[in-house]
Amino acid sequence: FFNLRRHRCPHSPTRIYDHGGDSCLMTEYLDKYPQYANISPPQSLKPKQEYQKHGGKMEGITTFRSDYLPYDVANRPVRVQEEYKPAPGDMDLGTTYKRDYNAHKIQPVILVRPLERKHAKGGKLNTIPTYQADYRAWDIQRREPYKTGSTYHPPTEKFGNSTTFQDDFFPKELTPRKSFKPTAATKPSDQPFNGITSHRNDYVVHQLEPKWVKSKERYRPSSQPFEDLTTHRCDFRGLGGELPRSCKPEYTKIQPKGHFNGVTEFRESFQPWAVSLPQLHKAKEYIPPAGNMDLNTTSHLDYIEHDVHPVVLMRPLETSRKSNAPFQGNTTMRDDFQAWDTSRQDMIKRPQEMPKPSGKFDDMTTFRAHYIPHHIIPTQSCKPLKMALSSSAPFEAGTMYRTEYTPKMQAICPATYPSPPGYVYVSTDSRGHKFFRKATPDTNAIAQANGNHVLKEIAVVS
Fold first, then answer.
1. CA torsion 400→406→407→410, rounded to 10°?
2. What predicted TM-score, i.e. pTM, was given to this entire model?
């Protein structure tokens, strides 16, 4: 399969209106695919669509004639209708509604809703809206448009339908150039492969010292008890107070004193009316007529039977006649209208510039033709073995944080003391907060037993 699309020449400019200079006749297609001799396209093996006559003989026997078997047809027996016999006894016309329904006296309901009163006014309705009464149309003159007239005039000549490509392009005969590309052929070396590298020559194997293993320290629990004091435990002072009372009323079970009579507003307002029972239409009792029924009709009495024989067919019975002569299937249509020897018009195709190969496909590639297998010598690995590096020298645990870190003194909040030193108690508010003020004497002389100094400019509120 060959791709016949056109390739652009890399030596030619890509601008459509620049035609200066000589055009380059070298393309990628001509460089890769050489030109072959003119070879006619292969002929199609598809059969032509022509009328084919049937050379056999036509028989006059059909499937119905060969498979049909006549049967004896008999008349269908007539079913005799039985005589109607009425059931003895009377019919019970009673229903469940008649048996279970109890009539009630119903009175008409008095309407409690007052009659609707319509307030009608005698004046005339004013149907003029506020917009129509207050709106006054202005006398505005129409402005003249400032739009300039169109200067475009359509061309009078007919459009030529020719493009720039059609005007400037003209076909040229391309001559194939000789390829200067070297042949892709491998040149094997006669000398053996030298696998010596600078790493193999200069690398010196050294003996590694055993790795120093640090001993695991034993866990030593702290001798001081755990201090679980928090800021909330130190600063919170709970005040005694009463619990809030609920405004929800107490639940009391209401029990009726008297017996429920079951009277509702619907039962009091809507009383049953007195309705008369509908009159039932009593069907007359069926009395069968006395005597037997006369089943004779006018046709039975006046009909005279005649002795009529069946009609004899004038057409002779069909008998199968077998003939040994061949069946003549020619008709006037076949004799007068003979089939013409016509063939389907071939599709108009452009002759192929690149003919298809006619020989058998050679499944030999350049790699298979020129490849020479060589015996592979495994390369010796120069990577050191994975051994643990150990040293007899002790591990230096000193870090920059340990050498340069300077501990600072931790200040204690005065609110942690019940009576902070250096401050005088003032008052306590309604929420239980105590207010202190700074004492007049110098606070530098006041110190705690643990050596922590008290802050100077901090107001204490506990």
1. -130
2. 0.14
